[in-house]
Amino acid sequence: MFGAGGGTSSYREVEETDLLILWGSNARETHPIFFHHVLKAIHRGARLYGVDPRRSSSAQWADTWLGLDVGTDIALANTIAREIIHAGLTNETFIEHATTGYPEFKASVETWTLEEGERVTGVPAETIRELAHAYARADRAILCWTLGITEHVTAVDNVLSLINLALLTGHVGRYGSGLNPLRGQNNVQGGGDMGAIPNKLPGFQDVEKDDQARARFEAAWGAPIVPKYGWHLSQMFEAMERGELKVGSCSGRTQPSRRPTPNTRRSSSRDSTSCSSRTS
Fold it and tell me: Does the domain made of 11-181 have the CATH classification 3.40.50.360?
């Protein structure tokens, strides 16, 4: 789904798709269970493209590896988008019924010729063309990304540039085609799916804005749900500084050293009434 850290495709769909793109993702090492499903797809005959500055262990499984220069993800995505448009491979029906702003987007990528894309990204023009045509022509295709896309100052725009590729080709919202962010920490995706985040119920349903969802969970759980967002991690530290959060429990990580402005965080932890930490 767009706007939340959840994918649009299931593991079963990954196994049964025709083409997979791992963009900024070394799933072979970092998401081994997920990659097991990728291998099932490969053994079925699916094509795998790896987009990563490094020739990672995942890229070694790929039919084609695009070793772009660091920080040029948007340039590569825009070049792919322009090639899809100029080759007449867009899904016009999907674009008309499910998107907005297409004329503006089309104009924005016009300068990203294959030659310009090669110059900026370091990926050969013919390889960019191959991926663009393969992705657009595939009956079913799934695009996945990980921290190689999101741990940049342009992280949001990086993700949007990949989403635009799926919208151009209609590779979202139907079985076997989708967009899957592979989350960065152990089972953070499962925690999000199950509602272990401060503003969502299970299934990424909004705890404040979705009255019907809240009513369903109140009936299932037999308890009222306060329609108010909780604090995410950074807001918790800010609440400590304000004296509003009195108790904190940190399990499995050395939190003060892993967040920005550590001196402030340590001070907040010392000043709070109770703060315990446990690592295993």
Answer: no
Q: 104: which 2 tokens? A: 């503006």
Buried b / exposed e over 73-105, threshold 16 CB at 10 Å, is bbbbbbbbbbbbbeeeebbeebbeeeeeebeeb
**CATH 3.40.228.10 residue spans of the chain:** 11-181
Alpha helices in 170-254 (DSSP H): 188-193, 211-221, 233-242
155-169 vs 73-86: helix crossing angle, rounded to 10: 20
User: Considering the entire predicted model, what is its pTM?
Assistant: 0.77
Q: Are 144 and 135 in contact (CB under 8 A)?
A: no
Detail the DSSP E strand segments found in the chain: 19-23, 47-51, 64-66, 141-145, 178-181, 200-201, 205-206, 247-251, 274-278
Per-residue pLDDT of 182-228, as tens digits, reads 876 656 767 777 888 899 999 888 999 999 999 999 999 999 999 99
Helix (H, G, I), strand (E, B), or coil: what is residue 47? strand
The amino acid occupying position 158 is N
pLDDT tens digit sequence for 116-160: 999 999 999 999 999 999 999 999 999 999 888 888 888 889 999
